[in-house]
Amino acid sequence: MAGSKSAPRRPRANPVHALRLPDQRRLDPAIKALFATCVEKLGFVPNVLRSFTLRPAKLEHFRKYSNELLLGESGLTRLEREMIAVVVSSVNHCHYCLIAHGAAVRQLSGDARLGDQLVANYRAAALSRRQRAMLDFVWKLSETPAMMAESDRAALRRAGFSDEDIFDIAEIAGFFAASNRLASALDTRPNPEYYDIGR
Question: Looking at domain 71-196, which of 1.20.810.10, 3.40.980.10, 1.20.1290.10, 1.10.10.10 is its CATH number?
Answer without folding.
Answer: 1.20.1290.10
